[in-house]
Design a protein that fits this description.
The chain is an alpha+beta fold. 37% of the residues lie in helices and 28% in strands. A hairpin with a 2-residue loop joins strand 14 and strand 15. The N terminus is likely disordered.
């Protein structure tokens, strides 16, 4: 077991997809909808999944919910290997572990709002019969719709119906709530109110995953997973170079090599030849700078999504600082060789200019830290 696998076990990631592939048979041969998906989500995280139509978002969601099964790979949700469950066990497991919110609400139109919310409790028998009405009313108060309990869903606005759908998803108090385009049919103001409700649920310990086409809303979540052509773009590469388009980010993800370092280990030494750009994926690294007639100093710490090696790409041939893993824990970095970085930047002038400006800024800071005038 690697350092990060041990750490993952300690944090008990509530969703863990490993090497997930999904093929569909078509008239012209197998179509690969998902390609070697690795995705881990911790308890209490708020994660958005974004991507173009046909990119694999819905297929990925179906893997997590057990609606569909991977051709290969493993899907663990709340400690259960979902990919191994029989159909009979799957429905009961889903009812107890997942709350699902659909884009089109999926409320039964001929029964009242409160009866819609009690349906999951009836199915899973999670609450005694006499307590289900009270539980449903508590959830309606949570979404501020208790005055509409005995109305039919069609008497409510779209935003109100979506709030009812969220209340229904919470009926059995599942640890994970999954929402598929939950604001797709709502105006912007109503969408924001629904998003606020999700944030409140996360604050209470729920894990929430939303699939959305709205990048502005996605930025409000803790993390964003971009999927393109059935592959997950590395989120830390995307943070480091946000001006790359989806296909360029996918290219960067594919070429980046992962390296892991023990706590306190030296990653780069001052004076060594510079040949790569580094993105921190996990853990924290320390930038250690030499100073004239003084002891070395830890100038800055870089966390996930931060990077180093850009100064040398634009200004130097050798490293003028040392980089080491923090003593606090292991570090994983993604390494892109300068030749490959040059190819990427040739495709995106905006990214080249952004990195150049950052390199210039950091170059000045480094000189200042070392007590050298620029």
């Amino acid at each position: 077991m690697s350092l990060f696998e041990k750490q993952a076990a300690a944090t008990q990631e509530i969703i863990d997809l490993r090497g997930v592939n999904k093929f569909y048979k078509t008239a012209v041969g197998d179509y690969r909808a998902l390609k070697d998906i690795d995705l881990q989500i911790g308890a209490g995280e708020f994660v958005s999944i974004i991507g173009k139509s046909g990119s694999g978002k819905s297929t990925l969601l179906n893997m997590i919910t057990g609606i569909d099964r991977p051709t290969s790979g493993e899907v663990m949700v709340n400690g259960t290997p979902v990919h191994t469950l029989s159909e009979n066990k799957m429905a009961r497991w889903r009812g107890n572990n997942l709350g699902i919110v659909f884009q089109f609400f999926q409320l039964l139109p001929m029964i009242s709002v409160i009866e819609n919310i009690m349906l999951p409790m009836d199915f899973c028998r999670t609450y005694p019969l006499r307590e289900r009405n009270q539980r449903a009313m508590e959830l309606l108060k949570l979404v501020e719709l208790e005055d509409h309990a005995y109305k039919l869903p069609t008497a409510l606005s779209g935003g109100q119906q979506q709030r009812v759908a969220i209340a229904r998803a919470l009926a059995n108090d599942p640890p994970v709530v999954i929402a598929d385009e939950p604001t797709g049919n709502l105006d912007s103001k109503t969408a924001e109110s629904v998003f606020e409700l999700f944030n409140n649920l996360v604050a209470k310990g729920k894990t929430i995953i939303i699939v959305t086409h709205d990048s502005a809303l996605a930025k409000q979540t803790h993390r964003t997973a971009l999927i393109a052509d059935g592959e997950i773009v590395n989120e830390y590469v995307a943070k480091a170079m946000p001006t790359l388009n989806a296909s360029q980010l996918l290219q960067a993800t594919r070429i980046a090599k992962k390296l892991t370092f023990e706590p306190g280990a030296m990653i780069l030494n001052e004076g060594s030849n510079a040949d790569a750009f580094y993105v921190v994926a996990k853990g924290t690294v320390e930038v250690v700078l030499p100073r004239v007639n003084q002891s070395d100093v830890t100038a800055v710490q870089l966390g996930a999504g931060k990077f180093f090696g850009e100064i040398e790409f634009f200004h130097e041939t050798k490293h003028r600082a040392s980089i080491r893993a923090s003593e606090a824990g292991a570090v994983e970095v993604l390494v892109i060789g300068y030749d490959q970085l040059k190819e990427l930047l040739n495709q995106s002038e905006a990214t080249r200019e952004a990195l150049r400006q950052i390199a210039d800024k950091h170059q000045g800071e480094n000189l200042s830290w070392r007590g050298v005038s620029s």
